[in-house]
Each structure stands twice: as C-alpha cells, then as structure tokens.
Design a protein that fits this description.
With 337 residues, the protein is α/β, with parallel strands linked by helices. Helix content is 39%, strand content 23%. The two termini are 28 Å apart.
C-alpha cells in the first residue's frame, strides 16, 4: 500500500473572439443547458445561476456570433438555424474542455496503488481497466495482486488500497463503487434433467446435488455463494468433491457431481462440454464492486473509484456483450477510450 495524492484545484475557462466580442465556454455551457432543459429558468436552476445571468450569457453569445441562436416565443423557445448549427460544435468544445481539465487534474496525482482482485471479480475487465487507469493516472504506479479464494479474509482491506470483488464485502464500513451488475445462473451437468430447461428457479434446483466449496475458503464466502444462503438457511443436499475456484467448479460440474450457482458472465466457461449454463431467476443480481477501507480512502483512491466506474461502463458491453471475447482485443479497445 502507499497511495498518495496530488492537489487539484481550478475550473475550465476559455474564449474565442468574434465580431469584436469574446465567446467563452460559460456561454456555450449556458446555451447547452437551455437546450437540454428547454428553458431559461430550468437552465438557471441546473447551473445554480439566476435566470437573468443565463439570459445575459446567451445575449453575449449572440453578440459574438452576430446571429440569434434562439427564437423566443410567448410559451416556447426554439433553436434558430444558427443555433442548430452551433449545437454539435458547442457540445464537442465543452466536452473537450472538460476532458482536458480532468486529464490535467488526474496527472497531478502520484504514488503507488495496490489493487487486489478476487476470483470471479470479472477478471476479464481487470487488465483493460488497469491499462486505462494507467493512462488516466500517468504519475501513479498500479500493482495488481490476484487473490485466491483461500486468501480472502475480513481484514484484507488493511493490506491493499483497493479490492475488486463480489459480495460479500470484507467489512461493513467501506467505500463501495459498483462496476457492474449481472444476473445469476446455474452450471448444470448435461445428465441432469434441469439442463434442458430454458431457465431455473431456486425451487427447481434446491433438492439437486451441487458442488461445494472446500473448507479452506472463508465461511462468509461459502455462505454467500451456497444455495443454503439463497434459500434462507434451508439445508440442501451436497455431494461430490469441493472446488477452490470457478475453473475447478466447472470441472466438477462437467464430471456430473452436481450443479453450481454462478454469475452470468461465467457462462462462457460452460459453453461446451458435458454441461450447460441455465439462467437462474428470482434471485438478486450479482455485483462486481471496487472496495476500499474508509480509513484508507484518500483523494487519490476516491478519484480511482470515479474513473474506474467510467472505464468499466465503456468496457462492459465489449467484454460481457459478446462483441469481443478475447482479452487482448478488449485491451485494444481500452486504448481507444
């Protein structure tokens, strides 16, 4: 561990001169707010300004352009042809200014960050996530620490800066950012009648044999991922050997020892062979989250929480949507963000 911070202050300003007047980013911000919120009053509320202040900015913008951008009626405000033409460039200019400000702010951070990841923590997202975080935080050295099921314990957040995991979280008092949420499913041996169903409920599978986790795994994880937990402590039959992780669990399922509950993204492990992955309905979705201890969440770690959520939102359709199944191709996509 060793996350450090950089001081970040300031706001975006900029201007373009035209017709003897200066067009500033604040003018474009007001213009886009009026368009988005369909009126000066609502735009003023959004910008935390008075309505006359917004009107003044629009007037200054029109003086700079030399043409009106809004046709003002008694009950409505419509864009003029000039306003329509300005809409796209104004949004791009404002987006570019905000991106420049964010890049400058993130570049001010420095230090080292240790990021741990649990099995099942959407590992296919981790590598491209680290690539993009490295680009956004050029002064920060990120160190990845893969954890096995056996290494998970409630005090793990005292050893690392950040942890990518699924529930259960190591401690109740933690800073938690959701990276993705996905439905649950069941890996079912092809010899089981349930493997031919289009979907399954807990009632369908509660009496089936299922692969258990080994006793070396922490009881909190065992309980969270067991059918016993999902069925409010109703005891279910268990037989066959235990498993230490997703791949070994798949092997146990393929061998016909029992079924296994898992997030939908694990379906790729059950695409071929003597098993099938069937959607499990009527249970809560599984969440992949970025977690840090409250005491260790400084300015840098908070910034990583924000940026990681943005990166994963862009990557998730590529990784989980089937558009790109190869991690290397996802990394290439991350480089284009």
């Amino acid at each position: 561990m060793g996350a450090s911070t950089g001081a970040v202050t300031g706001s975006v300003t900029g201007s373009v001169t035209g017709g003897g007047h200066v067009m500033e980013l604040r003018h474009l911000e007001a213009f886009l707010a009026v368009v988005e919120h369909k009126g000066f009053r609502r735009a003023a509320d959004h910008l935390y300004l008075s309505q006359p202040a917004v009107s003044a900015r629009i007037h200054e913008l029109e003086l700079t352009l030399g043409v009106p951008v809004f046709a003002r009626g008694q009950r409505s405000i419509e864009l003029t042809p000039a306003g329509q033409a300005l809409l796209g460039p104004a949004q791009r200019m404002l987006d570019a200014a905000r991106a420049a400000r964010r890049s400058a702010q993130l570049a001010a951070f420095s230090g080292e960050v240790e990021l741990a990841i649990m099995p099942g923590g959407a590992l296919e997202l981790t590598r491209p996530l680290l690539v993009e975080l490295g680009r956004r935080f050029p002064g920060v050295d990120f160190h990845l620490r893969p954890l096995s099921m056996q290494e998970w314990h409630p005090g793990i957040l005292a050893e690392v800066d950040l942890l990518i995991t699924r529930e259960p979280f190591p401690v109740a008092e933690a800073v938690v950012t959701e990276l993705l949420s996905e439905p649950m499913g069941v890996g079912v041996p092809s010899t089981f009648e349930e493997s031919r169903a289009p979907e399954l409920t807990l009632d369908d599978v509660v009496s089936c044999a299922h692969v258990r986790m080994t006793e070396t795994v922490h009881p909190q994880i065992v309980r969270h991922w067991s059918l016993t937990s999902m069925t409010n402590d109703l005891e279910v039959e268990r037989r066959g050997p235990g498993a230490d992780g997703p791949l070994q669990t798949r092997d146990r399922v393929e061998s016909g020892f029992g079924l296994a509950v898992a997030p939908a993204s694990v379906a790729r492990l059950y695409g071929q062979g003597g098993y099938r992955f069937v959607p499990l309905v009527g249970v809560p979705d599984s969440r992949v989250v970025l977690v840090s201890a409250v005491a260790g969440t400084n300015e840098l770690v908070r910034a990583i929480h924000r940026e990681a959520a943005d990166v994963v939102a862009r990557l998730t359709p590529l990784v989980l949507g089937g558009e790109s199944s190869a991690v290397d191709r996802v990394v290439a996509a991350a480089m284009q963000l």
